[in-house]
Specification:
- The structure is a homotetramer of 347-residue chains.
- The first copy, chain A, has 12 helices and 14 strands.
- Chain A is of the alpha/beta class and 347 residues long.
- Chain A has 2 domains: 125 residues, Rossmann fold (3-Layer(aba) Sandwich), CATH 3.40.50; 165 residues, 2-Layer Sandwich (Dihydrodipicolinate Reductase, domain 2), CATH 3.30.360.
- In chain A, helix 1 crosses helix 12, helix 7 packs parallel to helix 12 and helix 8 packs parallel to helix 10.
- Chains A and D meet through helix 9 of A and helix 9 of D.
């Protein structure tokens, strides 16, 4: 049985990862680390894990992780993984990073948006952007995966078939995303994330300046074969989990809703976690809660010549921990769906 | 004191209207009608009104309304007001309709989007589209006002200054709106509006087909002096009140955020209910809850050459009942702010 | 592999049952029935099940169920199962009823609280009240189980150790429960369950008159060996899932918090789904969401001589579908935890 | 016009107070202070107040307050007011304290529950517990009022008529309260108040140990003429505003629901903010949101010999700022309802 380790187990993404790995049929959680909860059981961090049969949290020590685990998930702030991953890789480990350190092919883009000099640009060259629906092959042979951001996951899955098939004018893409609050993480004790501030309220933030923008542009640009620039606006919505992304683009030629849906189904025919909805049906984030699925619906608007694509995911699962496990499955030769095929909790 | 009457007092918009009129300093509620609650006190429909000093609900009888009130608010389904308003106007009443019957200058547009033949096209010609920030003068001399829809109110207020000043390419407008659930009304007992279905979920609906689209296009087109077509996508968000509209458009020339904010402030300098936020500040619906204010923030995105405008209102207040009272104030020569200047309830 | 069938698959409890059975390692869902969705896939009823590998819904036909399944779950309104269960039992099936028909040992109690004459009192005598933590033995040899109500599950698990150990004055029990809205079911399209009415609001209902009262009293009375009467007040809270029950009783003698917690741990030492919290720690429903666990905390209040016990469950899981599967596991000789040991989704 | 000042304007209770005073017809807000927002406009603290015509926030300086205002509201942490109020009183000011410093007649009780030595016991003797429904006379002639806690307001209003009329056994009182999260205040940036932790969850806290307990006991004891001890359990519910208190007590003799309701109506006949519901009707917090009203419903349960009383308030309004203004009105000879008679915002 594969041994797995988590460096940063007690944030929301880390906790979701532990929840999934705890029931994974082919792996065993052998190492958990979290600075805030070191020496304590996971149940102290998440009441949902009280009584679970899990190792105690240890300090955030990559060497201990390397000793006790074969696959190691890094769930820390941006800039942390680039100092740690090279050593783990050198020790022959498979590494999946939840942060942005290994998502960008161009270190300059990383430096520009994250205001951090990359200290391991060579290692980054070996990393694969871990969106299995687009890069399954590369992931299967990778030792280091940069696990995508939550917004990019929903946006890229929604738009990729259009670009690949040259159906839209790539200069017209608008990406409007609505996210639950858990994406802000657990340690961010800011006024704006208090229940009394969030409940009953929607707001936009970081307009045109969110760090997930270059990720979307990099992947869409690769598919297009030319640079792509998108308008991306994230919104905070009064719910805990879920991202709904509504993407707009002008069609390059004539197209109708039914044929585009058919084209999406074909594009994702080997993607077990993408569910393409019928014409007239649009996704709700509720249908994906706690699951690794991405639901997509679309509509061609003849009046405006635009196509509108709506995609829904659970930001902590397909948008973070679930996708990381999907990547692990591919990297380790397991069934891509192992540990991930539970349907959403509904309602 | 002006006597006011409400035909349709016990839906959410009607209830909000009663709440506002109850404390209006220059008018008195003298007639309330609702088919479902006829013969009963308003407190039976809204526990918030238990013990209030209000007339009992009567049957939905326009003649009784005309007898007992000077200004009459019609808060019924689309298609109802066009049969009733002509008689009320003939009796010398001022009429404000919450439905769509008197919003369109072109009866063909109404027929196309609402699938209803208009039976009072002549009267419609005398009606004014009741968005006071754009049409205060016309409203002041009107006897019949078509009170705007909630989505159009937020969208038009957000975009109007850009079009009036010829700053954007009007073929590039995308309007992405996020609404609370109260907009669906109280009588719509559908599965999709149950708490268990709405809570924790965001979804898009009626993509490219929502009836508020032609309203937005009519008003923006009038400002532009040419036909305008917009991509409009409404979303349902797990909150009761509030609409946040995010509008995107390509700039016709160079512009920066600060100068556009200044231009908006100038545009709305006589509009007491528009609050223009500072650079870097974007509105949250929470800041408008229960109030008649519209908060607007914007950002010029140099990377994409687009401007992004975000506007927030309370859909039941500025998006319906509050705006109706604002219209009444103007129609009757009262202070535009009378009964409407309470700040939002926060948090 | 055991074949399972569900009569009533498309309400909230039915959907939860399908969600659990879909991943059950020892059984296979071979029959699904629902009148509203007959002929259609489960994904039409629950977007979370779109794309799942499940049989289509059939009409509500017990004979078809008996042909295709070995264990049959009845998820219909009260009064339905007593006409159906006898035939299924005669056909050698194991039957688990989600309704109240087979919960009461005294048909008079059923008639009094449910206003229904029982038509199968003899069969009822063979039924077991399906609370595994108290009746595992009897359930193991039962063919018919009356699956407990959601409120009684939380209340009885919270109070049972106190009564069994003769620690409280049974005439002083007050049970105050707070429930999410999904307990009202999916077909009840009433004003009171609309999002706009529920959100931001707590209310009590059916005070002293809720039909779950006699269930609580029956089971506590059996443990006490004498009739027990409780004050039970259910409340509706603005959340989808979860019940928190706060129970109060006067202590018969001296006791302290730590020793009572120890006594609870001993009482539930063989109950895999009861998690007893440490002193000073009280449960939140969030810690049980989507899981079959029941979290219990307690406090002895020396000032008043009362003990306060707080128990949390997911009403649809441990309070309905999860418990039903737990009962099936026992009835069929499977591991009590099979298909049920996933931790809660958090946050 | 009376000049009012607020020391601590930018917490939730302070903001609610400013919202109310801004529209008060007989007073003018002339002094606002808050350490965190000194030198800045209220709109920086609450987006709902952007554009309002209010003085800037000043430092927390009681002398400046005394110079600029006649009535001064102290909205600070417990222990702060006892150092400040004596000077303000000496300067001839009317003082209303939102904290606990002047709520207790016995300084020993204050010391025991708040772990603070009282430094102004003599001034405390002149203070009145500001629950106008019970103490209107005393408040009218008071210069210093200890504004009640939110939980005690709901509990005492619910139980007072029963005790005053000797209808219950005062040793059997159980008070189970469910509160929105805004009661925790705005500055408490704790994990437990993050949206992701609160949403979808109910929990009990401080069982038998909440500091509002002695307040309830003091006031009920005074009405009873003997010491009263109650079991009080506060709960956190996923909503922003509102408290619902469910109180249980054994009836001393026979009583029926209708007659008790009549008795309550008589008891509160001069209380403009208490709304007594009809038999079979129980309050929801939603009916009181943003208003100063308290809704009460009750039920006699013949089976158990207990009466169950349910009371609902808005914790920030009737439970804090609204009640403070009601006290000011009485202290200053104004109409008790001035500035407070707006109905709740619904839905």
């Amino acid at each position: 049985m594969l041994r797995t380790g988590v460096l940063g187990a007690c944030g929301y993404a880390g906790g979701e990862l532990v929840r999934i790995l705890l029931k994974h049929p082919e792996t065993r959680l052998t190492f958990l680390a979290d600075e805030m909860f070191k020496g304590r059981p996971m149940g102290d961090a998440f009441s949902s894990l009280k009584g679970s049969d899990l190792p105690l949290c240890e300090p955030l020590d990559p060497e201990a992780a390397a000793e006790k685990a074969d696959v190691i998930f890094l769930v820390q702030h941006n800039g942390w993984a680039m100092g740690v991953a090279p050593k783990l890789l050198a020790a022959g480990k498979k590494v999946i990073d939840f942060g942005a350190d290994f998502r960008f092919r161009d270190p300059g883009v990383y430096a520009e948006w994250y205001k951090l000099e990359h200290t391991a640009p060579d290692v980054t060259k070996t990393a694969v952007y871990g969106l299995p629906e687009l890069k399954a092959k590369a992931i299967q042979s990778a030792s280091l995966v940069g696990n995508p951001g939550c917004y990019p996951t929903s946006a890229i899955l929604g738009i990729a078939p259009l670009i690949t098939n040259r159906l839209i004018d790539t200069s017209t893409i608008v990406v409007d995303s609505k996210s639950g609050v858990s994406g802000a993480g657990r340690s961010k004790l800011e006024l704006g994330f208090l229940f009394s501030e969030v409940d009953g309220s929607v707001r936009a933030y970081n307009i045109g300046a969110h760090r997930h923008t270059p990720e979307i542009e990099q992947e869409l640009g690769e598919l297009a074969g030319l640079p792509v620039t998108v308008s991306f606006t994230p919104h905070l919505v009064p719910m805990v989990r879920g991202i709904l992304t509504t993407a707009y683009a002008s069609l390059a030629g004539k197209a109708d809703t039914a044929s585009l849906i058919g084209l999406y189904r074909d594009f994702y025919k080997d993607a077990p976690f993408v569910v393409m909805l019928d014409e007239g049906d649009y996704p709700a984030t509720k249908g994906t809660l706690g699951s690794n699925y991405c639901h997509i619906g679309l509509k061609v608007d003849d009046r405006t010549g635009r196509v509108v694509v709506v995609s829904a995911i659970d930001n902590l699962c397909k948008g973070a921990a679930g996708q990381a496990v999907q990547n692990m499955n591919l990297m380790c030769g397991l069934d891509e769906r192992a540990g991930l095929d539970s349907p959403a909790v509904y309602p």
